[in-house]
Specification:
Elements (H helix, E strand, L loop, with lengths): L5 H24 L9 E4 L5 H12 L3 E6 L2 H15 L10 E4 L5 H15 L4 E4 L5 E2 L7 H29 L3 E5 L12 H21 L6 E6 L11 E2 L10 H4 L4 H13 L4 E4 L2 H12 L1 H15 L6
Parallel strand pairs: 1-2, 1-4, 2-3, 4-6, 5-8, 6-7, 7-9
Helix pairs in contact: 2-8, 4-5, 5-6, 9-10
The chain binds NADPH dihydro-nicotinamide-adenine-dinucleotide phosphate and the ligand CCCCCCCCCCCCCCCC(=O)OCC(=O)COP(=O)(O)O.
Length: about 300
C-alpha cells in the first residue's frame, strides 16, 4: 500500500480547504429564496422573537399567518404591522391570525386546517413558540416535564406533520424550528427545557434527511440568550410561574437581530445555525471533544446554583 508522506499531505490539506472555501462561497452566492408573497406561518408571534420575525418577514413582502394563544395580542400586532406598511415601496399583505394552544396537541390538526385555509398553501413554517423552565429535578413534578415537552416538542412536531403533506404535494416549502444552544448542550436546572430542545434537534435532523428528496429544506436555529420574556414566562418545578427576568435574558441579544438572522437562514436555506457567543460555542465543542471536562463544569455550576436540601 502507498504511504502518504508528510510532504504529500500538505497539498491534500490545502486542496481540501480550497474546496471547502469554494463550497461556502458558492452557497453564499446562491440566489436567496424569494419571500415576496410567500406564505409564512409563525408560531409564538405574540411576543419576543416571534413578534420580531413577524416584522422582518412582513417587511420582506410575505403573506403572514400569525399564531399564538392570545387572539387580542395577535390582532394588536396585525394593526401595528399594517399601520407601518402604508407608504412603503415593498408590496406587503395584511397578516392573518390563527389562535390555538400548541400544548393541546388534539387541537393542532384543526389549527393546521385553518392555517391552510388562509392562503391554500404554506411556503415557510417557523416553529418558534416555546416555554422555558427552572428547577431541580428532585423537586420537579413529572407533569411539568410532560407539559414542557408538549409545548416545545409534541406541539411543533404535530403542526409540522399536519402541514407537511401539503408541502410534499406542492414539492416545495421550508420548515424552520427555533431550538436553542440548549438543544446542543444540557445545563443544570433546565432538564425539561434542554430535553425538549434536544428532542427537537433530533426530530428535525431526521426530518431534514427524509424530506430532502422533495426539495423541502429544514433549518434548525439554535440561539443563545435573547432579550425577551422567556424567563419571565418560564415554569417552575412545581408548575407555578417562575416570573423573574433573569440577568442572562436581560443581557441577551436584541430579538430584532436574531429575527434578521432567521430571515437570512430562510433565504439561504441553512440547515443548522448556532447564534451564540464564544462561551456557548466552546461549550458545544467541549461536550463532544472533551465530555469529561464538560460534565465537571456542569456539576460545579449545579453545585454553585443550588445546594440539594440534604446537604
Ligand atoms: N429568549 C431566549 O433567551 C431564547 C429563546 N429561544 C427560543 O425562542 C423561542 C421564542 O421564545 P421567546 O420569544 O424568547 O419567548 P417569549 O416568552 O417572549 O415568547 C414565547 C411565545 O411562545 C408562545 N407560546 C408559549 N406557549 C404556547 C403554547 N402552549 N401554545 C402556543 N403558543 C405558545 C407565546 O404566545 P402566547 O403566550 O401569546 O400564547 C409567545 O408568543 C422559544 O422557542 C425559545 O425556546 C431560544 C434560545 C434563547
Ligand atoms: C477550557 C475552557 C472551558 C470553557 C467552557 C465554558 C463552559 C461554559 C458553559 C456555558 C454554558 C452556556 C449556556 C448557554 C445557554 C443558552 O444560551 O441558552 C439559550 C436559551 O435557550 C435560554 O433559555 P433559558 O430559559 O435558560 O434562559
Amino acid at each position: 500500500m502507498e504511504r502518504v508522506t508528510g510532504g504529500g499531505m500538505l497539498p491534500l490539506v490545502l486542496a481540501s480547504v480550497g474546496v471547502l472555501l469554494l463550497y461556502r462561497i458558492l452557497v453564499r452566492l446562491r440566489p436567496g429564496a424569494a419571500l415576496q408573497d410567500a406564505v409564512v406561518v409563525i408560531t409564538g408571534a405574540s411576543s419576543g422573537l416571534g413578534k420580531e420575525c413577524a416584522w422582518v418577514f412582513h417587511a420582506a413582502g410575505a403573506r403572514l399567518v400569525l399564531c399564538g394563544r392570545d387572539a387580542a395580542r395577535l390582532q394588536q400586532l396585525v394593526q401595528e404591522l399594517t399601520a407601518c406598511s402604508t407608504g412603503t415601496q415593498q408590496k406587503t399583505h395584511t397578516p392573518r391570525t390563527v389562535t390555538f394552544d400548541l400544548a393541546d396537541t388534539e387541537s393542532v390538526d384543526r389549527a393546521a386546517e385553518q392555517i391552510l385555509k388562509c392562503h391554500g398553501q404554506v411556503d415557510v413554517l417557523i416553529n418558534n413558540a416555546g416555554i422555558s423552565y427552572r428547577g431541580n429535578i428532585l423537586e420537579t413534578h413529572l407533569s411539568v416535564q410532560r407539559d414542557v415537552m408538549d409545548t416545545n416538542y409534541f406541539g411543533p412536531i404535530a403542526l409540522t406533520q399536519a402541514l407537511l403533506p401539503s408541502m410534499v404535494r406542492q414539492r416545495s416549502g421550508h420548515i424552520v424550528v427555533i431550538s436553542s444552544v440548549q438543544g446542543k448542550i444540557a445545563i443544570p436546572h433546565r432538564s425539561a427545557y434542554a430535553a425538549s430542545k434536544h428532542a427537537t434537534q433530533a426530530y428535525f435532523d431526521c426530518l431534514r434527511a427524509e424530506i430532502e428528496r422533495y426539495g423541502i429544506p429544514v433549518s434548525v436555529i439554535s440561539p443563545g440568550y435573547i432579550r425577551t420574556n422567556l424567563s419571565l414566562n418560564a415554569v417552575s418545578g412545581d408548575g407555578s410561574k417562575y416570573g423573574v427576568l433573569d440577568k442572562t435574558t436581560a443581557m441577551g441579544r436584541d430579538p430584532r437581530d436574531v429575527a434578521q438572522a432567521v430571515l437570512k437562514a430562510v433565504r439561504q436555506r441553512s440547515k443548522d445555525v448556532v447564534l451564540a457567543g464564544p462561551m456557548p460555542t466552546v461549550a458545544i465543542y467541549l461536550r463532544t471533544l472533551w465530555p469529561a471536562l464538560f460534565f465537571k463544569l456542569m456539576a460545579s455550576r449545579a453545585h454553585k446554583e443550588q445546594k440539594p436540601k440534604d446537604e
